[in-house]
Amino acid sequence: MPIFAHAIYATIFNLKLIGCMVPEIDLENWEKRSDEHAKQYKYYLQKADKKKVLRLLPELHDAAFEKIDCLQCANCCKNYSPRFKMPDIKRISKYLRIKETELIDKYLVMDNEGDYVTKTSPCPFLGADNFCTVYESRPTDCHRFPYTDEDVLFKKPAITLKNATFCPAVFFVLEGLLANK
Description:
With 181 residues, the chain is mainly alpha-helical. The chain folds into two domains: 85 residues, no CATH class; 61 residues, no CATH class. 57% of the residues lie in helices and 3% in strands. The chain is built from eleven helices and two strands; from the N terminus they run H-H-H-H-H-H-H-E-E-H-H-H-H. Strand 1 and strand 2 form a beta hairpin. The longest helix has 18 residues. The two termini are 37 Å apart.
């Protein structure tokens, strides 16, 4: 293969790998900027090309977590509760070596939507060092959070917009999506 053909192939291959531009996103004062951009996010999530968004999300998600250390934040664990579905309750009870009813009675309450959530904030499983004491068996909601690598981002825009108010990773991904319009 001629040298110029290698260069063309390498360029095409690299463009396919890149997929999107990951802009430099300043995380200083991100909460204020997220609030200021909330209307833009809402409009974008309503009008976005869903297929394009799904192609962009993996790279933006990975870039967000290269810059953001959840253990320095833990806002999700400090202020909100995940849903605890029965499989979560079974798994965590087994991990803690307690009965499911004990887990429910001690830590959980049923909300108005019929889901179990934590009785207290911060989460009773959040350690002083921001590590989760049941991390290996954490609820599915915790495992999936902040949903920045899946279609929940635009399928449930109200959740995404709420998450953008307290999670810097959601802010980062939304800013990246806006930059790639």
